[in-house]
Amino acid sequence: MTRKFVSAGAAIAFAVSLAGPLFAGANDYVFEPVKAEVKKGDDVVVSVRLKHKPTGKPVTDAVIVQTRIDMSPDAMGEMASPLTPLPGNEPGVYSFKTDLSMQGRWLLSIAAKVQGEPETVVGKITFRATR
In CATH, what number is assigned to the domain containing residue 95? Predict the structure, then answer.
């Protein structure tokens, strides 16, 4: 009888350990600014790091599907600027060239597809443009 309970307990523990990754979701990832303060001007580079929160490891194989940068943190959401993706030079870092014409806070809204993750990973990162 005891052997049955031990076997059943081991089987349940094993099943739960296998199911753990199945419950992972887009919330297991986070975008962070590489450098939150940048100089205003033309051809400014803004970079974000995409990390897997449980492991802290960079996510290198994400496909960026949507980006937007605007001044919505300073109540000027209509003040937007185009973004041009740049080749990565560090694992898990995604960089974009843009024009930050004014000093203030700029919000980068970004969405990415991560391999093996059914949900889209979404991030909102604030950069401060200075002189």
Answer: 2.60.40.10
pLDDT at 25 (0 to 100): 87
Mean of the pLDDT values across residues 34-63?
A: 97
6 is a domain residue: no
Amino acid, single-letter form, for residue 80 = A
Phi, psi of 65 (to 5 degrees): -110, -15
Strands 37-39 and 120-130, bridge-based pairing: parallel
The string of pLDDT tens digits covering residues 54-96 is: 999 999 999 999 999 999 999 999 999 999 999 988 999 999 9
What does pLDDT average to over the chain?
87
In a domain, 115, yes or no: yes
- Domain extent at residue 94: 25-130
* Total number of domains in the chain: 1
DSSP string, 60-104: -S-EEEEEEEEEGGGTEEEEEE-EEEE--SSTTEEEEEEEE-SSE
CB atoms within 10 A of CB 48: 24
How far apart are alpha carbons 85 and 99 in whole angstroms?
13
Residue 64 lies in a domain: yes
